[in-house]
Amino acid sequence: MPVLPSHNTARSALTCRYRCGDACSHDAPNRSLNTYFGDIVHQVSRRGALKSGAVLALAAAAGTAVATPAAASGKPTTPAAHRGPDRGAGRLPRGLRFEAVPPNTADAVTVPVGYAQQVVIRWGDPVLRGAPRFDARRQSVAAQSRQFGYNCDYMALLDPPAHCRGDQLLVVNHEYTNEEIMFFGYDPANPTREQVEIAWAAHGLTVLSVRTDRRSGRLWPISGDALNRRITATTPFELTGPAAGSDLLKTSADPTGRTVLGTLNNCGGGVTPWGTVLSGEENFNQYFANAASVTDPTAKQRLARYGLPTGTSQRKWERFDDRFDLAKEPNEANRHGWIVEIDPYDPDSVPRKRTALGRFKHEAAEPRLTSDGRVALYMGDDERFDYLYKFVSTHRFKKGTSRAAREHNLRLLDEGTLYVAKFTGDSPIAEIDGTGALPEDGDFAGSGTWIPLVTGNTSHVEGMAADEVYVFTRLAADKVGATKMDRPEDVEPHPHTGRLYVALTNNKDRGAVGKTGPDEANPRNGNKHGHILELDERRADAAATFFSWRLMLVCGDPKDPSTYFAGFDKSQVSQISCPDNIAFDEHGNLWLATDGAALGANDGLFAVPVTGPHRGHVKQFLTVPKGAETCGPIIADDRILIAAQHPGELDGATTENPGSAWPDGPGTVPRPSVVAVWESGPRH
Ligand code: FEO
Ligand code: CA
Ligand code: CA
Asked: Which Pfam families match (predicted)?
């Protein structure tokens, strides 16, 4: 049994160890003193001017969410699975007419009555031609590099080109590996080269052609399709944008600072209007070792702000490739922590890391168009007390599928302005006491600004050159007084109103001794269960630098007085904790996948209307198996897809002593898998 570190979260220690390098057990790396005082000063009250009504009405009128072309519609459309008459669930909005799944700890995916489910693809299933069937006892580098990777996370469904044998293209991230529940006989202190190289091959992304069986409704992978692709921790990437070629990105293997091997810890993502997939490199720091060997004070500060391990890394990759050893390659870590852009329609394309989007623990990148046709991307930095960012391109998106339009669009994310968010509350700070009690005006709300950090080669941050702002974006944001948030994760625009929804997963350290206290946008001390923030940009224009905001949900057990469900009757809602990846259905209901299980039940997928009389009526749609996290929800017109990530990742679990038997049953190793759910019969 492994010796597990002590940890301070509801997640298993095993998850903390492998997913984010025990981030929770370390001090949050943001020790800047950049917020709060500003909040007090500005607090005085923009109240009235910005208060909800007027701004929300403007937002509702404009509707600037990106209308993605069919070819790029990784986003939800009509949930036919939820159409039809309401049979007994009360006057619920369309899309919400299912019986809520109660909290549970089953080792299964549990769906509402009247819904069917299917495992679409599992870790180790064949993707590329020649891939062998999965055999947990005989896994090899050659097999893994042709098979579906580990820990599926973000997913996008795209329309395929004409020559594809499938009827859709599924793109999936593989965030991280957990060697202790992947390999038989794994010794964390002495991994073998074979195990390490399998892990490299199990990271990255998969592009997979899939076909719908019209009779059964099932979705089948087409292994060996010409469009299928595996991108791994060793696939060559091009660094593009203003920081490409900077001295900060040069290594002995790449003196140009423009080519890097692999992508790591790919978490959430987004689909661009031109049909590419964006993916966030999140907890990249954990793969590197020996930050303590760096003595230069500036370099040390930079490494600390990104949480680079001072000693050996968890997986010991530095023993097998010098680039993971900061003592030997101090700049290699600077080449990770970016948003990557993949063209799933061209299996030979070189994927890109877009330096114009800044470097931090990127959760995801959600695009929409500005009123004049430029591209805005919203991005969270998932760490306690880190920030929310926006990028706005200099040039406009060109419609159409011509080669010229495509080449133009493929350069859009290389030039623009990167901003960071500052939130100001509209209630007196004394009323934000950290308990979650609403202030006198009845809601947590206020205004905010997007503070520019850098435009092209021009830095807006005193004392930092442009390439330093891109590579050490967290330090730049510290200097301009960005608001420290409770782990900003996914951001999604409402398909009709243009309002943005931001998932803030949790922050156990909010208000702790020596840590930043509550503010109106992050109002709860020791925030174990997270919250959902609604953001309206001025005139609903994604180019705006000014916005209003309010909290829609403050999550947890509805019996807990610190929770808030947009004022909806709490006796009718499902408990919910740690919202992470979010998506909209075509009716405008928000779907939330959770990552935390902080209420003792398995993680799940939830739906909630954000407008109308049922605003705040959270209902649980499904739960995932023991130890798993719900990822990548796609709320499509005929089915819902989720990725059940890290099943069986429980304290004490090993491959020999598994924490779950899902999906293959007793006597097998748990396998992270993609699951489809659809309506199959009467619901009541
Ligand atoms: Fe990989 Fe922020 O979740
Ligand atoms: Ca208020
Ligand atoms: Ca996530």
From this structure: PhoX (PF05787)
Q: Is the CB of 282 under 6 A from ligand 1?
A: yes
Which atom belonging to ligand 1 lies closest to the Cα atom of 361?
2
Kindly state the helix (H) or strand (E) to which residue 298 belongs, with its residue range. helix 297-305
- CA 153 to ligand 1: nearest atom: 1
- What is the H or E stretch that residue 406 is in? helix 403-409
| Pairwise CA distance, residues 311 & 291, whole Å | 7
pLDDT in tens, 255-302: 999 999 999 999 999 999 999 999 999 999 999 999 999 999 999 999
Number of residues that this document lists for the chain: 684
The finding on whether 489 has its CB within 6 A of some atom of ligand 1 is: yes
Q: What is the pLDDT of residue 16?
A: 78
Query: What does the pLDDT average to over 83-100?
Result: 66
Nearest-angstrom CA–CA distance, 592 and 580: 7
- pLDDT, position 660: 97
The Å distance, Cα 41 to ligand 2 centre, comes to: 15
Q: DSSP of 435-489, one letter per residue?
A: B-PPPTTSS-EEEEEEEEEEETTEE-STT--HHHHHHTHHHHHHHTTPPPEE-EE
Q: Is the pTM of this model over 0.85?
A: yes
Say if ligand 1 is within 6 A of residue 382 CB: yes
Q: Where are the domains of the chain?
A: 13-282+337-679
Q: What pLDDT does residue 682 have?
A: 63
315 by Cβ neighbours in 10 Å (0-12 / 13-18 / 19+) ranks as buried
Identify the burial level of 91 via C-beta atoms within 10 angstroms of its C-beta, where 0-12 means exposed, 13-18 middle and 19 or more buried.
Answer: exposed
Cα angle, residue 489 at apex, residues 547 and 457 outer, rounded to 5°: 65
Buried/exposed 198-235: b ≥16 CB within 10 Å, e otherwise: bbbbbbbbbbbbbbbeeeebbbebbbebebbbbbbbeb
Q: Where does residue 64 rank: exposed (0-12), middle (13-18), buried (19+ CB within 10 A)?
A: buried
What are the angstrom distances between the C-alpha of 561 and each of 173, 569, 570, 603?
37, 13, 10, 22
